[in-house]
Design goal:
The chain has 752 residues and is α/β, with parallel strands linked by helices. Helix content is 39%, strand content 12%. The strands form 6 sheets. The chain has an 8-stranded parallel β-sheet with strand order 9-7-5-4-3-2-1-10. Helix 3 (29-37) packs across helix 16 (342-362) and helix 19 (453-467) crosses helix 23.
């Protein structure tokens, strides 16, 4: 017994027959809990409320003795601290194998298993995640999910995280960087993301330290901190994150050892019925598991001994007594009090049932799963999450953009980066013009996409028609455009036009000669082909392709893509002729382009003069959108034609159009899409780090989209660099887009 008390600080669990929980699983939680309760004595029911520390540095024989002691005393669970993953996994297997009612296995791993296990991964402290902008909160969700996944692998059911204390006191010796910050809304939101992420993996999250440990200058491990806030402050600040996490469905709450004078001057918060039962349960409506902070901390043991703290913890309304320093004495003290107090005895039964229900929910479904140490794949997953965090916080991108704005390479821009479908960068910079009084760029600002129209409209439309069997890439354009028959363009195929190797002239100022959709196409038809074979980037092929779409589908290009892509995908601000489609009130959302000698300031109408002369809808230009909605189109392509569970294109079609068809002729282009150079260059249209499998397009107005399947990346950059003049093109000269791309890739290219 001395060894148990002095060395092991033991946690014990009731042994039961596996056959009981196998049949109990089928009977449901209530029957299983009843079946176990009926076998437990009063002492054993008290023991079920205790989760104790697993001793460090045990020999194999000591581990066996510790496991046997748990079976004898029938305590509810264990909590691991410092060690190695292999050793912890081995002990967990042993403890669960010896136990016949499963253990609740807990860990205090706020920033991952590496907080306790020296050979496991540690994420940055919460304070760093607290620097995220709200749109990037999903990074915290995925961190929580990864921590939960690794806990599950290790046989852990409860992780005492997240910390949702408000870090309002810079002298706080124990919270500090463990907190998400000083703003109650951000702390709440990030705490919710962490908790929901972890619980998505079947591991209970525990919000701590209730009712708020942020504004203290003492460490409860050493003494009892005192809180002198008013009740109004406590309700509006300290407990606010807990209220929000309770609404979001957090599974557990840990109560701190604090002297909260405004609420209960006579007892520490962890032993206060006023704080736990009245405030947390009744007032805030929390119905999950309630844990004390470690009862072996001096904030408690300096005042309470001989099991009195454990007794008061039960009376106060806690479900689980964490880390009792003397389990036998605690059981005996509580038992003696319960034998004289029917109310206390009913409380014990109530809390025991709740603990058993938690075991039914958290442990039984995973009891047969293999307990194993997370491997290199999980470490890589953690590295990716941290890479996303660091990329978001990297100020180098801000520097590149701000330098470009200062040099008047562009008035402002939008940048969106998606990684594995997650938005990891969504930033706006500058203004719509260089006038300091001009509207700032927002996420709702619409940009003229220029030639990005080729991939976000025309190519998508042709892909869809191929998908449904209305076109084939080897078909001649003249099959659908009778006016090409008998001309030098009669034999041009769809594949050639989309690969820019149809000997079509790059462009011409048709707008100076005529206006109207059909009239412009007549001039295109009459323009002689180039004599030389090979790659020449051309608007003309896409002007003809838009007419192919019209004649095959019976709908103009804008109507076709709106019907098949933009509307069902919810992209209501991806439009041709934005004022006509969205209304005059949206004019201020649209970034102006050039100040033209004929048209004046061009805003809300397409910049490209040929597209303008064609009525604003053409296959080579005319589309307006914002970076968020364009990124959705690119993510759909990256995911093989699927977006939010709905298939828009066949995967084979996407692969066909994003592949090169004339590589032997030294043509880097795919069908509609641009590709990486065969020999990447730092001064090219895409950064040298982009893979050969990547694809995208740039636009004359200062736009760019790029998708890289090898790195699961989507990059969208939109600007109006042509305002107020299209020349000189400082955006390209300064390599603004590609420099930003290179920074992004630096986080996802494996380090050698």
């Amino acid at each position: 017994m001395r060894l148990f008390r002095a060395i092991f600080c033991v946690s014990i669990i009731f042994n039961f027959q596996f056959s009981i929980f196998n049949s109990a699983t089928a009977q449901g939680a209530s029957r299983w809990v009843d079946s176990v309760m009926n076998t437990l004595s009063l002492e054993e029911r008290i023991a079920q409320l205790m989760v104790v520390r697993v001793p460090l540095d045990m020999t194999d024989s000591q581990v066996a003795e510790f496991s046997k002691t748990m079976s004898d005393y029938k305590v509810g669970g264990v909590c691991f601290f410092v060690g190695t993953a292999d050793r912890q996994a081995s002990m967990t297997r042993r403890f669960q194998r010896d136990a016949k009612v499963p253990l609740l296995v807990c860990i205090d791993g706020e920033w991952g298993l590496g907080m306790r296990l020296k050979d496991m991964y540690s994420f940055p402290r919460n304070a760093k995640f607290g620097l995220l902008e709200p749109y990037a909160d999903s990074i915290v969700y995925y961190m929580g999910a990864e921590i939960g996944r690794q806990c599950r692998m290790m046989g852990i059911h409860i992780n005492f995280a997240p910390v949702v204390d408000i870090n309002s006191n810079p002298k706080n010796p124990v919270i500090g960087t463990r907190s998400f910050g000083i703003d109650r809304e951000r702390v709440s939101q990030l705490g919710i993301m962490y908790a929901l992420g972890q619980q998505s993996q079947g591991v209970m999250a525990v919000a701590k330290h209730f009712p708020g440990h942020g504004d203290t200058d003492k460490d409860s491990h050493l003494e009892l901190p005192v809180i002198n806030h008013t009740r109004e402050y406590i309700d509006s600040i300290d407990t606010y994150p807990f209220k929000q996490l309770i609404k979001a469905g957090v599974g557990g709450v840990m109560v701190a050892h604090l002297q909260v004078n405004e609420i209960d001057k006579s007892r520490p918060s962890s032993l206060s019925r006023v704080i736990i039962t009245d405030l947390l349960k009744k007032n805030l409506g929390f119905d999950g598991l309630i844990f004390t902070d470690g009862i072996d901390m001096k904030g408690i043991t300096n005042t309470y001994s001989d099991g009195q703290a454990e007794l008061e913890a039960v009376r106060a309304g806690n479900d689980i007594i964490l880390l009792p320093p003397d389990v036998p004495q605690s059981i005996q003290t509580i038992k003696e009090a319960a034998e004289k107090d029917d109310v206390l005895r009913k409380q014990i039964d109530y809390h025991c049932r709740r603990v058993l229900k938690a075991k039914y929910d958290l442990v039984l479904p995973h009891l047969k799963e293999k307990i194993e140490v997370p491997g290199d794949d999980r470490r890589a997953a953690c590295d990716e999450i941290v890479a996303e965090l660091d990329l978001h916080l990297d100020q180098r991108i801000d520097s590149v953009v701000n330098n470009a704005i200062a040099a008047k390479a562009m008035p402002g821009c939008q940048i969106v980066v998606l990684h594995k479908g997650r938005k990891i960068l969504d930033k706006t910079y500058g203004h719509l013009t260089y006038d300091k009084k001009a509207d700032t760029v927002t996420r709702q600002t619409l940009y003229d996409l220029a030639s990005v129209t080729k991939v976000c409209a025309t190519t998508l439309a042709v892909m869809k028609l191929v998908d449904i069997g209305k076109l084939h890439i080897d078909d001649r354009l003249s099959k659908y455009l009778p006016y090409l028959k008998g001309t030098d363009k009669e034999h041009i195929t769809i594949k050639q036009a989309m690969s820019h190797c149809a000997r079509l002239k790059s462009f011409d100022a048709y707008w100076q000669k005529t206006s109207g959709y059909d009239e412009i196409l007549s001039l295109v038809t009459a323009t002689p082909l180039l004599k030389k074979e090979g790659y020449v980037y051309s608007d003309l092929g896409f002007m003809l392709l838009s007419d192919v779409v019209r004649r095959v589908s019976g709908k103009t290009l804008d109507r076709f893509v709106e019907e098949h892509f933009y509307h069902p995908m919810g992209l209501i601000h991806t439009v041709f002729n934005p004022i006509a489609m969205l209304g005059p009130m949206h004019a201020r959302l649209i970034a102006p382009t050039e100040v033209d000698s004929i048209r004046g300031l061009i805003q809300a109408t397409v910049h490209d003069p040929n597209a303008f002369a064609m009525g604003g809808v053409s296959g080579h230009a005319g589309l307006f959108s914002n970076a968020d909605q364009v990124s959705a189109l690119m993510q759909m392509l990256l995911d093989g034609g699927v977006y939010k569970g709905h298939r828009y294109l066949k995967q084979k079609t996407v692969e066909t159009f994003t592949s090169r068809h004339y590589a032997k002729q030294n043509n880097r282009r795919a069908l509609g899409f641009d590709k990486q150079l065969f020999n990447p260059s730092s001064s090219a249209q895409v950064c040298p780090e982009a893979s050969q499998s990547s694809f995208g397009h740039t636009g004359f107005t200062g736009t760019m989209v790029w998708v890289d399947p090898e790195y699961d990346l989507v990059f969208v950059f939109l600007s109006n660099r042509v305002h107020p003049s299209a020349t000189p093109n400082l955006l390209a000269r300064m390599n603004v887009r590609t420099d930003i791309q290179s920074i992004i890739y630096s986080y996802f290219i494996p380090k050698k």
